[in-house]
Structures are given as structure tokens and as C-alpha cells.
Amino acid sequence: MTPRIKICGITNLDDALAACRLGADALGFVLAPSSRQVSPEQARDIIAALPPLVNTVGVFVDAPLVEVSELRRYCGLDWVQLHGDEDEDYAAALGRRVIKALRVSPERLPDAAVYSSCSLLLDTYHPQAVGGTGQSFDWGLACGVSRQRPVILAGGLTPDNVGRAIKQVQPFAVDVSSGVEKEKGVKDHERIANFIAQVRRV
Description:
The protein is of the alpha/beta class. It has 7 helices and 10 strands. 30% of the residues lie in helices and 22% in strands.
């Protein structure tokens, strides 16, 4: 099965519509402090203008539970992605359609048994950042989890390496942000097209 594709770090309507037109299945909006952060109002306005059947994902980092729930409703988000140290009770309290990011390194191996109520996203561990580093990790560390449950693979994916990553990990979906940018927060539409073409080609 061809993996689903999420383009994350969307900050403007032009990039959002281009990603949809080129075949993205989901768009990610960073609502946590970040160089790609958007305001709830920006996210809401972009989401309201999207074509039908495109999934929208709000990315949060250790935000108060009530805030996440309120912004999910306000922005019209289909999914919530938790990218901090949120525990399993916190994630479960948000109900369905929750993605929990696990940051992976040889010292932080992912466990397929955790966050059973969530979808898992595997990203690169970095001591100073919770995501969006543009750095990949050893994909072999993800294979044990991907054989046991569907995973979303993230971390340093680009048009040049996504095909190899998919062949090794066999993820349910792939997630890209910096790998299709021309500058932080601004997407390169040609790179998005190339990325999606490489995924479809596997």
C-alpha cells in the first residue's frame, strides 16, 4: 500500500492549496512555539478554505489539555498531534484521532506497546528541539514498531531519501516539513511535487 502523505509546517493558504492540488493527504499546522508557528486564527482561516477530504492536524507541545481541546474545535482540526512529553492519560483524554510523536535515537528506542489509544509518529530525537530539525534517524530503529502497528515516519525526509525510507520501514504514512521548504515556514511547491512523486513511485 502506498503510504499516506502529510505536509507539516503549513503557514499560508498558497502552500496549503498547492499541497492539496499536488496530492497531499493531510496538512499539519504548528500551534506550539516554533519558527513555523501559526496563530489559531491563521490556522482556522486556512482550514476553512481547503478542499474537501483533506485531513488537518494541529501540532501541540505540552499545552494544557483544555487549550488543546478548545483549539481543536476552534480551528476545525481533524487530528491532534502531541509532540512533547504528554503522558498516556493526557493523550487518552483527547479521545479519537490523536497522534503521539516519539523521538527516536539509539538511546531512546520506540516501544510499540505505548500510547495504545493513539497513532504513533516516529521522529528524530534532538536534545534542544522537539521536532522540525530536518535531521533523520537510523530507520532501522523504527522497523520493530512498524511491523507491529501502523506508524507515521518523520524526521529529515526529503525527495531524495523518502523512497529508501519507505522501503526499509514500510510506514503507513510519511510526514515532511523542512524537506520541502525553500525557507522556514515557506514551502517549495516543486519539492512538494517531487516528494509526493517519489512516495507514489515506491
